[in-house]
Amino acid sequence: MADFDKLKDAMGDLEEDDVLEMLEKVMEDGGSQAGEAMKACQEGMNIVGERFASQEYFVSDLIFSGELMTEAMDIIRPALLSQSSEKVGKMILCTVEGDLHDIGKNIVKAMLEASGFDVVDMGIDVPAAEIVKKAKEEGIHIIGLSGVLTLAIDSMKATIEAFKEAGLREDVKIVIGGAPVTDKVCELVGADAWAINPADTIRTCREWSGSAA
Ligand code: B12
């Protein structure tokens, strides 16, 4: 049984060797506890964020934490993905304008693809108008917006407004996610749903595409 508190702390302390070693151990049985390990790593990233906010860590530590989280996910990703051969639909996923964070988005993308979605990944810092244009061009009805900065909330709102202005709001379902997103934020920006983890995102998007979770 892995010690997930230890894993969380090692991630928060940016102890690369310890994190990677613990994750290799988690994978020894094929990764039956990979979900818990991901959660612990994410909580460890919250510690990094708190230490950055209190000026104990610097931007270089944030950058390093991003690299470490990416390495960590590379180890456990195979166990998180239960591959579906069924094709359930196409959707857009991106990080909204002004926000360059993409680790969470990339995790969500990998899991959506594994569950059968054809994900059009528009990348990071994507302006509202481009998202609307892409949805229109490709006839896509499910949109996932990611953002971890507080300012991402404004960009999410602007994106939803842009769909309204284009007369397309009723044609799309929009799910938002990322660290600052809550039910209140969902209501404020006018999204259809929000999710904090990939499993909930998949459930919501599969419901919208007409496939049971
Ligand atoms: C790593 C990191 C970085 C890396 C990002 C690397 C990368 N490629 O993404 C780098 C170094 C680039 C970075 C830069 C900056 N960062 Co930064 N960063 C972080 C940190 C430590 C971790 C983020 C992360 O990857 N978490 C792990 C992932 C797995 O979690 P997640 O993103 O929440 O994703 C999960 C869920 O939210 C959900 N999800 C995610 N997306 C979606 C989408 C949908 C549709 C759904 C349904 C669900 C969903 O599923 C995911 C998996 O479970 C956070 C701290 C934190 N607590 O988040 C700060 C943090 C977000 N950063 C912060 C800041 C201030 C910055 C900078 C401004 C620093 C600077 N002075 O330059 C810049 C901003 C650049 C910009 N314009 O975006 C602040 C934001 C403050 C705020 N309230 O706005 C934070 C909160 C740190 C802090 N406490 O001060 N950062």
Automatic annotation (TrEMBL):
Pfam families membership: B12-binding, B12-binding_2
Residues annotated as domain B12-binding N-terminal: 1-88
B12-binding domain sequence ranges: 88-213
Domain of life according to the entry: Bacteria
Annotated GO MF terms: cobalamin binding; metal ion binding; methionine synthase activity
GO biological process, one term: tetrahydrofolate metabolic process
Protein name as annotated: Methionine synthase
Species of origin: Robinsoniella peoriensis
Gene (UniProt): metH_3
